[in-house]
Records
---
Amino acid sequence: MIAYARGPDAPILEQTIDQALIRLAPGESATGDEIRGYCKGRIAHFKIPQHIRFVEAFPSTTSGKVQKFRIRQLEMEARSPAEGGQAATHELDGKPQ
């Protein structure tokens, strides 16, 4: 499992983690509640993601590094359809979500 988590853009101490994107290993399965349950008691409560989304792949550079700016762009487009973004049909990994 590989995960990418991000919080709101406001620089606040102990800010909550807004969303976690998780790529599971082939053949593995999990639910958002299972991930949150696993985190509970292992990490601080404000670090447990409020929203969990499973993806097939992350946008990455040719050297394999995750393009965090691209994830932010896609999430902002998905969250603000009134501002020209698309609803929840954006593509993060080449497949509609």
---
Amino acid sequence: MKARKKSSTIPWSTVRNRVLQDPETASEYLRLSVDDEEDFIAALRHVAEAQGIGKVAARAKLPRESVSRMLSRKGNPRLGSLMALLRGMKLSLRIEEGH
């Protein structure tokens, strides 16, 4: 019986985290998800995970537990918390004319 080769694939979450460390990529990822509330919260969580939730929380001056709660599936961050979180991700919110 032949020995099986170990898989050399990289988990998607690892790839996603590497890609989302780039601020330009992270901002585009969030921009594309903003039309759906659940997708947007999930995208915020992905970016925070890529940058390190603890680091994002510290830069946002928010407790890490609060950030984790905001970004959970049941999360519903207040506007002030969202703005602080975005600042912690070194991003900002921009409002544009709708179509």
---
Amino acid sequence: MAIFPIISIMLRERCGKVEKVTIKPSVWASAGFIKRMRYSLTIYPSKLVFRSGILARSETEINISDIRAVSVEQSIFERFIGVGTLSIATAGTSLPEITIPSIPDPKKTKTLILASK
């Protein structure tokens, strides 16, 4: 049973209603737990905010209209345990601007991002 949220995804709908989905894994792997704990992705109607780090923090904001591609990569093992790597590419760069490794249920997160476009 998970006690601490690994990644929190917040989706604010256009009518002002806020829906918060907290994804908690059922399997704890100490290295994977710390790796995932340092990432936070918040989805708003007009922007996406990505925060990383535990002690030292960095924050990246991307306009939803600038998102060109959202991709999910999963190995066979990652598919079995329900995690994967989520990459978000924008119009201004040739490489993904945001890459989140070991994110729980990456397809659901991809669907939330694409639904906000």
---
Amino acid sequence: MPSASSAEPSRAAPHLDTSERAVTLTGVTVRHGRVDALVGVDLAVAPGERIALVGSSGAGKTTLLSVVAGLVRPTEGAVAVLGSELASLAGR
């Protein structure tokens, strides 16, 4: 379940515990100029698990999915898909 942390996100990408996870986001923040699209998002999705991403217009749903797909690089935090950190994959 996604959660937004009210604490100041760390500047460095934290170590991810990706064991038995299809997707793991840890402290993900995305900024577009002065606008925070996502702030401190943590999410863990197990293989085969189904989730619904629900929110109002402008809540960051598309940005979150773009981060998971590797189309948008987080300003802060880390993302792993099937145990591989996206930032470490070739072509990123």
